[in-house]
Design goal:
By secondary structure, the chain is mainly α. The chain has 17 helices and no strands. It starts with a helix and ends with a helix.
């Protein structure tokens, strides 16, 4: 009976609008159970217990075991009461997403169009230019794979946006930005760099395998065999012999191309920031850093809520979806996807490629305008119809700057010049 009551007490405590101190409630319940048990004892039995020096420890142990045993019963009680809770959550999500679409629906629809067009363009381009069996076109292959990844990330972002998770969507754009940067770098440096890019997988495999071996036993996993480890190490060592010691480092595949362009990278460490700067995409570094706050557990990441309502900023710990903060990740994602697709098309240029690029740019610009309008409407209503000049969530002023900088990036190497 005591365990069942504990389960019910927990359910009530965590679901109440203003839950009481749960620890105090548990202690009261345990005290009640203990007093109830003592009341059944005769005075002689109580006196005998009082003389037992080990009683306190045994009671403490019994209480701990009772609490531990109650966990299973509590879980079962929660499961039995879960259908209404789950239905309520599902109804809330459906209502929220329907309401969200009233503001952002046009932008979401244009995002769908950009993603679909980029997919069809990439697929047609691949079918037209895929090399025959036995022929390797490393740059073409890398760019095709990068665009496939870009498309999938863009789909992920759109799912997050439609669910009201702007900061998570911005974090995924961060990954897409890296894909776009690498695509531009591969496009610029061609087959040799692309071949190194593919080869560097063996370096990353060795590092992952070495790390796995260190923790496999503790994780209850089966370690790689000595033969597998030796084979992976030998493959990595052969590549370092072929390409040089620096190839074994992070981003070692880009080191030679960077060093040829900027001598400091003969010795300097190669980073994604260096690759970004090399393709003139470092103007997006502030936005990349902003997106990083949603990835890392740094103080800024837990105090800065770009997708909270203006009236709640600094007052609410956001744990679920929000209708705010969707414009930056939405538009940025489409621009980065278009940039990757541009790189794919520029590698094998032609009239159709140029037309496809222009269509994507037009749709992306229109989607950017739709995101901006939705954001302005949302901010205006949230602030009581006051005119907004910008906000720390990425308000209109911030978004306009973001749009301009991203558009500038696309036009860094005009498509006509790439031909």
């Amino acid at each position: 009976m005591g365990n069942l009551r504990l389960g019910e007490l927990y359910r009530q405590a965590v679901t109440a609008d203003k839950p009481d101190d749960f620890d105090a409630s548990v202690r009261n319940l345990l005290d009640e159970a203990l007093n109830h048990a003592l009341a059944k004892l005769t005075p002689e039995q109580v006196a005998k217990l009082a003389e037992d020096e080990g009683l306190s420890q045994r009671v403490s142990t019994a209480i701990g075991e009772a609490i531990d045993n109650s966990a299973d019963l509590t879980v079962e009680a929660l499961k039995r009461s879960s259908p209404p809770m789950l239905a309520e959550r599902q109804a809330f999500r459906a209502k929220f997403e329907k309401r969200l679409a009233e503001y952002w629906g046009r932008a979401f629809d244009l995002s769908e169009m950009v993603i679909r067009v980029a997919h069809e363009v990439g697929e047609a381009h691949y079918d037209k230019h895929v090399p025959p069996d036995g022929v390797r076109d490393y740059a073409f292959e890398v760019l095709a794979r990068l665009q496939a990844r870009a498309l999938r990330i863009a789909e992920e972002v759109l799912v997050l946006l439609k669910a009201g998770y702007g900061q998570a969507a911005l974090a995924r754009w961060r990954a897409l930005h890296e894909v776009a940067v690498v695509a531009d770098f591969i496009l610029e440096h061609g087959d040799d760099c692309a071949e190194r890019y593919f080869a560097h997988e063996a370096v990353e495999t060795w590092k992952a395998m070495h790390e796995f071996q260190t923790h496999a036993t503790a994780l209850g996993e089966t370690p790689y065999t000595d033969e597998e480890v030796q084979a992976a190490r030998a493959e990595r060592d052969a590549l370092i012999t072929k390409y040089g010691k620096r190839f074994g480092e992070d981003y070692g595949w880009a080191q030679a191309a960077l060093a040829a362009k900027d001598p400091q990278y003969v010795t300097a460490r190669v980073t994604v920031k260096a690759i970004e700067k090399s393709v003139d995409a470092d103007l997006l570094r502030p936005h990349y850093r902003m997106a990083s706050h949603g990835v890392h557990a740094n103080p800024k990441g837990v105090t800065w809520m770009p997708d909270s309502l203006p009236s709640e900023r600094g007052l609410v710990l956001l744990t679920g979806p929000s209708p705010m903060g969707l414009a930056d990740p939405g538009h940025a994602t489409l621009i980065s996807l278009t940039s990757v697709t541009d790189a794919v098309l520029a590698n094998k240029p032609g009239e159709a490629a140029r037309l496809s690029s222009r269509v994507l740019h037009r749709l992306t610009d229109e989607a950017g305008d739709a995101y901006l309008k939705a954001h302005q409407r949302m901010e205006s209503e949230a602030r009581g119809d006051r005119v907004v000049s910008g906000s720390n969530s990425g308000g209109p002023g911030t978004i306009v700057r973001l749009c301009r900088s991203l558009r500038a990036r696309i036009d860094i190497v005009p498509f006509a010049q790439r031909n």
